[in-house]
Amino acid sequence: MSENHSCIGCGADIQTENPKELGYAPPSSLEKEMVICQRCFRLKNYNEIQPVSLTDDDFLRILNGLGEQQGLIVKIVDIFDFNGSWLPGLHRFVGKNPVLLVANKADLLPKSVKPKKVINWIKREAKSLGLQPIDVILVSAHKGIGMSEVIDAIEMHRDGKDVFVVGSTNVGKSTFINRIIKQATGEGNIITTSHFPGTTLDMIEIPLDDGAAIYDTPGIINHHQMAHHIDSSELKYITPKKEIKPKVYQQNEGQTLFIGALARFDFVKGERSAFTIYAANDLPIHRTKLEKADSLYEEHKGELLAPPSKEHIHLLPELVRHEFAIKEGKTDVVISGLGWITVQHPNVVVAAHAPKGVEVFIRPSLI
Ligand code: GDP
Fold first, then answer.
1. In this structure, are residues 120 and 156 in contact, taking their beta carbons and an 8 Å threshold?
2. In whole angstroms, what is the distance from residue 243 CA to residue 18 CA?
3. Fewer Cβ within 10 Å of end Cβ, the chain: N or C?
4. Which residues, including other chains, have CB under 8 Å from residue 55's CB and lie 6 or more apart?
5. Nearest ligand 1 atom, CA 168
6. CA of 292 to the centre of ligand 1 (A)
7. CB atoms < 10 A from the CB of 117, how many?
C-alpha cells in the first residue's frame, strides 16, 4: 500500500490510526485511487462538520497562516471552561483581523444569571488576557440560543470577507458550524470542500453567497483539562449537560469538600464562610474534616469517593495541592474542565487539590 496519500477534499495527509485526528480515513479507503478523509466525507455527504484536533505545532502553523489572511476571526470559547478553552496566543497571530468572541454553552449557566452581566465579565477577562474583541456574543449552539444574533454579527463584521472559525476542542465548534450550515443552506444542499488555495492550512470551506467563505479550522487540544486524565467512559460524569445547579456549603475552618475523587477543596483558614460549587450536577460532593482528608482519600477513592470508579482510578494522576490566600470575596477557584468554587467572603486561605497537570487558578467570580 502506498504511503503519503492526501485527502482530495482538504489536502490533509491521510492516516488510518486515529479517527479523532486530522486526515483520518478507514484503512479500506486506501484501496481507492482518490482518498477522502472522514471529515470531508461527512461534510460532503451529510453537510456535517466533525471535530478534529491537532498538535500544538500544527495549530501554531494555522494561527500563523491566519495572520496572513484577511477576514473575520470567530473565536469560540466554552463558558463553562472559559480560561481553559481560551487559546492564549491568538491575539498575537491575527494581525489586524477583527475577532468576534463567541461564548458557547450558555445553557449551562443558571437561568438566574443575567446574560448582560456574563458578557461584561467576558469583556473584562478578554481585555486582561490581551484581546479586544469587536463584539462578544453568548450562545448555546446545542439549543440554538443566540444563533441568529451571531449570524447577523458575522455578516456585519465580515464586511464581505472570509470568516475563520477557531476554538480548542470540545468548545462546541462543530455544533456551532453545523447550525450555521443548516441555516445558510437549508437541508439537502451539497457543500463543496476544498483545500485552502495556495496554502497548507487544513481548513474546511463553507461557501457564502457572495463568493467569500467560512473556514473551519481544526480544534487544538487543551492538555490542562481534567478530561485528559479520566477514562472516556467516565467523561459523562464531569461534563455538565444541563443548567448547573450551584451547591452552597457553609464551612468552618478545617473542613474539606471532595468532588468525587477528582478534586478536593480545603478551607484552611478564616471565619465561617460560604463556598458555592459549580460543577456537573451529578458529581457527588463529600464533606469531611481536613485532618481526616488524606486518609479518607487513600482508603475510599474509587468507592465512597467516585468518579473515577475503582476500575479507572489508576488512570488519575496524584492530586496536587494549590493554596490561595484570598483577599476579596466573590473569587472563583477554577479547576480547568471540572468547574469552579466561588469563595463568597474575603480574607480566607483555601487549597484546591487537583490531578497533576490540571490547571487550577483564581479569577473574579463569573456569577
Ligand atoms: P468541538 O470539538 O469544539 O467541535 O465540539 P463539539 O461540537 O463536538 O461539541 C463538544 C461537546 O460539547 C459535545 O458533547 C456537544 O454536545 C457539547 N456542546 C456543544 N454545544 C453545546 C452547547 O451549546 N451547550 C452544551 N451544554 N453543550 C454543548
1. no
2. 33
3. N
4. 221
5. 3
6. 38
7. 11
Look at the chain and count its residues: 367
107 close to ligand 1 (CB < 6 Angstrom): yes
Q: What is the pLDDT of residues 297-316, one digit of tens each?
A: 999 999 999 999 999 999 99
State the burial class of residue 22 (Cβ atoms within 10 Å of its Cβ: 0-12, 13-18, 19+): buried
pLDDT (tens digit per residue) in 23-44: 889 988 888 777 888 877 776 6
Distances (CA, A) of 120 to 125, 135, 233, 324: 9, 11, 36, 25
Query: Ligand 1 centroid to 46 CA: how many Å?
Result: 18
Closest atom of ligand 1 to CA, residue 53? 2
In short, whether 104's Cβ falls inside 6 Å of ligand 1 is yes
Asked whether residue 273 carries a pLDDT value surpassing 70, the answer given is: yes
The answer, yes or no, to whether any atom of ligand 1 lies below 6 A from the CB of 75, is no
Domains and CATH numbers, the chain: 49-220 (3.40.50.300), 228-364 (no CATH)
Q: How many C-beta atoms lie closer than 10 Å to residue 152's C-beta?
A: 11
Q: What ligand 1 atom has the least distance to the C-alpha of 51?
A: 4
The ipTM, to two decimals, is: 0.99
> CA-CA-CA-CA torsion for 159, 164, 166, 170, nearest 10 degrees?
100
C-alpha cell at 179: 447550525
For the chain, give the longest Cα–Cα distance: 71
pLDDT at 227: 77
Contact 337, 81 (CB under 8 A): yes
pTM score, two decimals?
0.82
DSSP string, 204-255: EEEE-TTS-EEEEPPEEP-TTSGGGGS-GGGHHHHS--S----EEEEE-TTE
As a 3-state breakdown, the chain gives helix, strand, coil percent values, each rounded to 5, of 30, 30, 45
